[in-house]
């Protein structure tokens, strides 16, 4: 016969299990049906794999917790044909934007990240209509970032959702990004630069961890080819991979950081991976290392190692700290600062604004000033500065390299001013979105020194 304490224990465990199960979100694809146009019944846009309107098309590809496609047909019979159809109708190519959402989000119709994606695609479409007249298509990569509806289970899900994001990245997501990369090559074959189809991949938070897990495998292979075959340029996946406030530990970035600083690259090399993290992001700056602390107590770490010059006996980044800090808050791996400043009082050093030469992108908004006749401005401390016009009159964004940065470099890790990204979820900030669009166009059109 069970004691009263045992009975209460069983009841407590059963109740906790029921609460946990009740708090869990559904485990099925959230965009399971056939493509439809916006507002068109039956089923409507709320269950569509592809949303289509006069400005853009948006497709959904989803993965389960084991990293499998929820249904390969989402990609093969809906999203891929969506891109190919847009390209066939657009002689100047297409602009493809891929977004991987983060923790506590999913591919639900009314999810805030889905709404954000629609807004950015509409904005890009308006830019294209005024410029290159390319069609705009979006691919929203969904996974079960929101696994619990109630607190404290939402917060507790940090540990297992991080593991799931990385598992998805090592699973079928790698195939998706590789197929998108191959599809871009196919669309651009035999086309002029003016007809080039662009592919930009963006990941946020644990979505950044997912995207990094997937593309780092491809980038590592391309780095190996660069080293062995002495190829001129390391190719990105698509045109550029961008991680915003990514939530993965700096230790996972060590190989790419080391190669970026230890290998000489051609002057034409452009960034293939750009990481942007808000200096005010407490989620990755404070809570992430707290969570990692409890998850790494039984891991063994080595002492300091010099990651700039492997094999050389000198101090360097702490491995113990690298497994705790997120990649965007680990100071030894930061290469740049993105600063919000006033152009009229903080001009590039060495010349008055009226005498500066400027290289403008075809958007006429991103401006790179130079004072030395080269393709960039060097300050007295030998840092490299790129200036971009801000959203407000007289405002500017200064992208400035840190000491020790080796140029050119395919990997940028940027600490961002809180006026450009306020916190972890402020990825739709007007300042940041404008900078990011100009940043992409700038590197696409930048001439080598």
How would you describe what is shown here?
With 449 residues, the chain is an alpha/beta fold. The protein has 11 helices and 15 strands. The strands form 2 sheets. It has a 13-stranded mixed beta sheet, sandwiched between helices. It has a two-stranded antiparallel sheet with strand order 10-11. The longest helix is centred in the middle third of the chain and has 24 residues, at 206-229. It is globular, with a radius of gyration of 23 Å. The termini are far apart. Mean pLDDT is 80; it is low at 7-27, 33-44, 305-315, 349-367 and 369-381.
Task: Outline the secondary-structure elements.
Layout: H1 4-23, E1 36-37, E2 50-52, E3 56-62, H2 72-89, E4 94-100, H3 112-130, E5 135-142, H4 153-156, H5 158-169, H6 172-188, E6 198-204, H7 206-229, E7 240-244, H8 254-262, E8 273-278, H9 282-295, H10 319-322, E9 336-342, E10 357-360, E11 367-370, E12 377-378, E13 384-389, E14 395-401, E15 411-416, H11 430-445
Parallel strand pairs: 1-2, 3-5, 4-5, 4-6, 6-7, 7-8, 8-15, 9-15
Antiparallel strand pairs: 2-3, 9-14, 10-11, 12-13, 13-14
Helix pairs in contact: 5-7, 6-7
Summarize the structure.
With 449 residues, the chain is α/β, with parallel strands linked by helices. The protein contains 11 helices and 15 strands.
């Amino acid at each position: 016969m069970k004691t009263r304490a045992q009975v209460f224990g069983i009841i407590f465990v059963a109740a906790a299990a029921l609460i946990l199960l009740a708090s869990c979100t559904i485990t099925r694809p959230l965009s399971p049906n056939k493509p439809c146009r916006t507002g068109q019944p039956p089923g409507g846009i709320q269950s569509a794999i592809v949303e289509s309107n006069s400005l853009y098309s948006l497709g959904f590809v989803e993965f389960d917790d084991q990293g499998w496609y929820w249904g390969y047909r989402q990609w093969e019979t809906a999203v891929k044909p969506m891109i190919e159809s847009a390209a066939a109708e657009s002689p100047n190519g297409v602009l493809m934007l891929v977004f991987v959402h983060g923790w506590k989000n999913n591919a639900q119709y009314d999810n805030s990240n889905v709404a954000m994606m629609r807004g950015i695609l509409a904005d890009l479409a308006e830019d294209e209509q005024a410029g290159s007249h390319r069609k705009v298509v979006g691919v929203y990569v969904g996974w079960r970032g929101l696994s619990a509806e109630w607190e404290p289970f939402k917060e507790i899900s940090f540990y297992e959702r991080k593991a799931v994001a990385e598992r998805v990245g090592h699973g079928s997501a790698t195939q998706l990004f590789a197929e998108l990369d191959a599809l871009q090559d196919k669309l651009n074959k035999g086309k002029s630069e003016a007809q080039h189809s662009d592919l930009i991949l963006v990941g946020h938070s644990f979505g950044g961890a997912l995207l990094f897990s997937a593309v780092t495998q491809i980038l590592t292979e391309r780095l190996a080819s660069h080293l062995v075959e002495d190829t001129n340029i390391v190719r990105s996946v698509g045109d550029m991979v961008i991680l915003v406030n990514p939530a993965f530990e700096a230790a996972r970035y060590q190989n790419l950081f080391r190669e970026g600083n230890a290998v000489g690259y051609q002057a034409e090399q452009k960034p293939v991976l750009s990481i942007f993290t808000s200096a005010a992001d407490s989620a990755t700056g404070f809570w992430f290392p707290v969570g990692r602390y409890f998850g790494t107590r039984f891991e063994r770490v080595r002492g300091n190692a010099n990651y700039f010059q492997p094999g050389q006996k000198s101090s360097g980044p702490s491995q113990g700290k690298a497994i705790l800090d997120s990649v965007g808050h680990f100071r030894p791996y930061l290469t740049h600062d993105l600063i919000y400043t006033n152009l009229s009082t903080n001009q590039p050093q060495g010349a008055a604004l009226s005498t500066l030469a400027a290289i403008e992108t075809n958007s006429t908004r991103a401006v790179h000033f130079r004072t030395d006749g080269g393709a960039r401005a060097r300050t007295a401390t030998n840092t490299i500065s790129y200036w971009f016009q801000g959203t407000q009159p007289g405002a500017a964004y200064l992208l400035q390299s840190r000491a020790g940065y080796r140029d050119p470099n395919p990997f940028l890790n940027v600490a961002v001013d809180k006026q450009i990204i306020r916190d972890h979820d402020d990825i739709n900030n007007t300042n940041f979105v404008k900078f990011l669009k100009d940043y992409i166009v700038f590197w696409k059109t930048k001439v080598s020194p």
